[in-house]
Design brief:
The structure is a homodimer. Chain A is an alpha+beta fold. Chain A is about 35% helix and about 20% strand. The mean pLDDT of chain A is about 95. Chains A and B meet through strand 8, strand 9, helix 10, strand 16 and helix 18 of A and strand 8, strand 9, helix 10, strand 16 and helix 18 of B. Chains A, B: Keywords: FAD, Flavoprotein, Oxidoreductase.
């Protein structure tokens, strides 16, 4: 991962002339925005004492060099990128600690409690909600607890179709390991190539194939968590009535309650066949209604996505084809994965139903599947040209969809100069769906302040519409004010009570999640 | 509901001569066991002061007459029945309080906090785990908070397919109300006729059609909860990443964290067709493997049950046919509900797969569906004859099924005199399933002590096998020691932390759930 951009520099996607022309048409003239080199980044001195660094090093691997620290500074939100591009590493951890095992994690936590050192669990570093920028005040220092050495596939149970993994495995690494046993996890978020198994669990990640495989939280059957007061192990059965489901308390906790050291997930046989089709619907409303019907009738495909009119036109996910789709309407992707027989059966049911519901079958098209992880590269290319780009996501019930869509779009339009606002539905449920917005606007003044204002307006619109502040990006620091509104004061008190009990000195990711 | 037996006295199911003969063959000679009349029940005096009763009556309806109190004494476990049959109402509430609204509940809780009165939320009164026998010490008295007046269907959202209901609706009442809108909840546990919507939520109930419709906790999309520190409202989207899922903390909380006053659930269109088939498999192992395959391949029917060899032979659910099934093997019920087209398609897939997997199609058979709620009546008939009967249930992953099955059977065989132990699988998941045991043995000495010892042995066997102490009966007081072993000391601390925060005076169902 590039230290201040998304992903692999070799995969960067600079805009070609026609794409630049179209962007300029929307937002006005482009400018080249310089970024600093790694060596120019301003890094605070290591705040920990030499004794503390030695104390950590006596437990496991520790690094305090500049590059290690810069690479664990914040996550990958647009404000995070803007800060690093400008050379600001003010939130850098004092040290990077790399445990090799659950026992290492336990020992690090005990030492951190003793020394009052804040601990930020670090998986793939892809947070887009400020989940890695812990509060420093009141602590001797901050360490990034980098889980990158904890990459074992601990067990596969082929009969129960589960796999137990360490948290540091990145998406492709985990897929490769369970793939050797003939299985897939089926979790493919846009961050797939760089995000970790532990991160998927503690942020309630949801992948692009969630219609078929389910959200990551629905795949998790067991967790092992190291907390400052001891281990929590949950998942004694696929489902039970043994009180509140504590797995559901750890998921979404973003490291504030403990460090997940083992994750057991449902796996499925590797699909023999994968077919992705595109469909066109006359309008977003009609396409969304068709998705609802597929889901409520129990025949949704593995992948089910719908772009709104503008996203269909702009097709931002693939710079080579920006502006190429000229037939209007809204593009839907329907992907089918499974045995040949299952794919054939489901395709025939879906084809019949979507046709009845007003869709036009555009045939098999692998373009979406090929470009599915490329969106973030384009953001870097646009930031290079003075275009602020960020994403926002939420979810609601079907009957509230239009109100939410209109509300967020209006809020963004009112708070940014002539913005492009694109939207798609990428996760469907029986009772509702997600909405994922991509926003682009010309930088005017301080881009971070500019974005904060727009983000606040959009977040207010989500809560005002009775929707959630986040469908799959988690809370971090950025969403905290709206979490408090979403779950109310009693909900906040419950989170605080759990936090205070399992982390009485408050060393775990301080300032994250809990209002 | 009869005050000391299950259900409607008109539906009692005394054993006929052939059934008696068969039971005697298994467990030895039967004896007629007398039970007391309602008037003979020994009831403690009302512990609340006249001022306190008046204080409650100033808020809402209150009753302190003997019958009202006896009818809210404990639940419907076999020990509960044995105590009432012997005239022991020592756990009776001092008063029965009947709120008519959320605001009434809030006011009752505030008064109870002020006066230190313990509050036991009471829905259908069907707990089989001691969930209604609150601890009295430290309190001025105990009231049953009977939710039977809170029976409104608050809202139906036909587009999102959700319904919002008050907690006091019993299963058939709720089905009738959503049925007027063309929907079903699809939740049909054995207790369906007498258990309540609120109870389903706070105990994580699972119904006989859970393969198709899902467990009740998976149907719940929103909850409103009155706690002593304020209201908690959750369910802002079908799914979200806004921190831990607080719905999952309320579900399974058995009234210890608050009183659920509104429940929003997923509903589905009323099925146009219902077809129930029976199949025979050569062995329990082979039948279970077939269920696993159906589920993992995504083609499980709406109802999927499998009786082990002895349960197949005895067929306890239908006294008229006890001992009638003479062809050996294990009986499976496969039920299909939905549109005619969906039923036909699923049936054809299931028929082909079950045939391949060694099953014999016995054709359409409505006997199971007709008798599905009758099991508890037979328990009363057997208790009348000196036969101790009770049920136990658990769940585990597929690869652990045989170990769990053998472990529980061995524990029961070793701790009861010549017991009959029957078992079935009634809830299947991708990664595992439930096991539901029915145990019968001749009473020898004190039947309650006799059962407690057997229950403890079976519960130890469940935890020793790494399974859950309860798949769908909840914790109450009976399962608390094993809950502590299942979730460990950190899990217990989390429950205590939440309890202490939301219920600082501890008035809510004291002694229930939390070890």
């Amino acid at each position: 991962m590039h230290w201040s951009r998304w992903g692999d520099p070799a995969k960067a996607q600079p805009l070609d002339e026609s794409a630049r022309g179209m962007v300029e048409m929307f937002v006005g003239p482009l400018v080249d925005v310089p970024t600093v080199e790694l060596e120019q980044v301003v890094l605070p001195p290591v705040g920990l004492t030499a004794d503390q660094v030695a104390g950590l090093a006596a437990i496991t691997e520790v690094a305090t060099d500049a590059e290690s620290r810069i690479r664990r500074t914040r996550g990958k939100s647009t404000p995070d990128l803007l800060k690093l591009r400008a050379g600001d590493a003010g939130d850098a951890p004092d040290a990077v600690v790399r445990p090799g095992s659950h026992d290492d994690v336990v020992a690090v936590l005990a030492y951190a409690v003793e020394q009052r050192i804040a601990v930020v669990p670090f998986g793939g570093g892809t947070s887009v909600v400020g989940g890695l920028a812990a509060r420093r005040d009141g602590f001797a220092g901050v360490v990034a607890l980098d889980l990158a050495r904890m990459k074992r596939l601990i067990a596969v149970d082929p009969e129960s179709q589960t796999a137990t993994m360490e948290p540091g495995l990145l998406g492709p690494e985990a897929e490769a390991l369970v793939g050797e046993h003939g299985f897939t996890i089926g979790h493919f978020p846009q961050s797939f190539e760089y995000a970790s198994i532990g991160g998927f669990a503690v942020t309630r990640s949801s992948g692009q194939s969630s219609s078929g495989y389910g959200r990551f939280d629905s795949l998790v059957v067991g967790l092992r968590v190291a907390t400052p007061i001891g281990d929590l192990t949950s998942g004694s059965a696929p489902a039970n009535a043994a009180g509140p489901d504590l797995r559901e308390l750890v998921m979404g906790s973003e490291g504030a309650f403990g460090v997940v050291t083992e994750v057991t997930v449902r796996v499925r046989p590797l699909p023999a066949e994968k077919v992705y089709e595109t469909w066109r619907f006359p309008s977003f409303t009609q396409g969304a209604a068709a998705m609802r019907v597929l889901r409520q009738e129990g025949i949704a495909p593995t992948v089910l996505r719908l772009s709104d009119e503008l996203e269909t036109m702009v097709n931002l996910a693939d710079p080579a084809s920006i502006g190429a789709a000229g037939d209007g309407g809204c593009l839907m992707v329907a992907g089918f994965e499974g045995t040949a027989a299952a794919v054939e059966l489901r395709r025939s049911l879906v084809t019949a139903r979507l046709t009845e519901l007003g869709g036009t079958d555009l045939g098999v098209d692998e373009a979406w599947a090929t470009g599915r992880y490329n969106g973030p590269y384009l953001r870097d290319s646009l930031l290079d040209l003075g275009i602020l780009v960020e994403t926002l996501e939420t979810a609601t019930f079907w009957s509230n969809l239009t109100r939410l869509y209109d509300g967020v779009k209006s809020a963004l339009a009112a708070s940014l100069p002539n913005p492009i606002v694109l939207c798609h539905i990428s996760h469907v449920y029986d009772t509702g769906c997600s909405l994922y917005f991509t926003v682009a606007a010309r930088v005017a003044g301080d881009p971070i302040a500019q974005w904060r204002a727009a983000k606040a307006a959009a977040s207010d619109a989500m809560i005002d519409a009775g929707a959630t502040i986040t469908h799959h990006h988690a809370i971090g620091t950025d969403h905290k004010p709206w979490l408090a509104r979403e779950i109310g004061p009693v909900g906040v008190e419950i989170l605080r009570a759990v936090k205070e009990r399992v982390d009485p000195t408050g060393i775990l990711n301080p300032g994250i999640l809990i209002p």
